[in-house]
Design brief:
two-stranded parallel sheet, 272 residues, Rossmann fold, alpha/beta, 28% helix, 6-stranded mixed sheet, 7 helices
Length: 272
Amino acid sequence: MVERVCAVWFSPCGNVEKIVRTVAEAAADALGVPAGPTVDLTPPAARTREYVFGPGDLAVVGTPVYAGRVPNKLAPDLARILRGNGAAAIAAVSFGNRSFGDALTELAGILRANGFAVPAAAAVVSQHSFAQALAAGRPDAADLEELRAFARRAAEKVRSGCLAGPAIPGSDPPGPYYTPLGTDGQPARFLKALPETDAALCTRCGICAAACPMGSIPPEAPSETRGICIKCQACIRKCPAGARRFTDPAFLSHREMLLRTCSGPVPSAFCL
């Protein structure tokens, strides 16, 4: 019997948080149990401790999709810090109108390996983090209502005692990460690219440093990036002065390729 619904997310730009909160609140309402606690795994410090669940919990766990997979810097953390102990979980991923690839099967596999049953899963179209014309404004009101309906169906499945895993599109185990391409159709190599800062615009407010999920922007020198950059765009999207941007040619070529080839409508996927 579910006693509470917990929301767990890694969400540098906010879409995954919106998706997970929507599903968790609707599921809790359908089950007549509290919605909470919430666990925001985006700050680096949040991924230094374990989160332990149990048979009375339903956890909604969400991540973004990077190159068709769970972000490679996040997957080991999830495997290390989430402990299911017989809890049920709804796996959710957010993807930017290209493809969710094997990310949903990968996330469900991590959760199952950590002691969760995964009776439901969803891959939700969301505005692309750096090609923002793709799926602009999504998840929108219609998407959120679709998510609520999915959450109610998932809650009913859990209430009935059926925790069997659904068929989830994708390879299990997951295949290799998607290779980004440029407008010339060749691999776009920008792994080491870092955002640049316009010193004339930067106010040194520190918002970018607080937003970086890798902790790679020092608060005392917010115009710099001194560690791993996962290209999440949090520092760029959240900078109130518009002072940060990517200028790497390969990165910009990949963004243009996405805008040219991934503008058509792509449905979300709901697995029960």
